[in-house]
Amino acid sequence: MDTRDLLDRLGDEPVSGEALADAFDVSRNAVWKHVERLREAGFAVASDGDGYRLDAVPSSGGYAVAYHCDADRLGRSIVDRDTLDSTNRVAADAARDGAPEGHVVLAAEQSAGEGRRGRRWESPRGGLWMSVVLRPELAPRDASVLTLAASVAVARALEDRGLAPTIKWPNDVLLDGAKVCGILIELQADAEAIDHAVVGIGVNANAAPDLPDADVATVADALGAAVDRAALAAGILEHLEALYTGPADEVLAQWRERSSTIGREVRVELPDETLEGEAVGVDDTGALRVATGDGERVVAAGDCEHLR
Ligand code: BT5
Question: Using a 6 Å cutoff on CB, does residue 52 contact ligand 1?
Answer without folding.
Answer: no
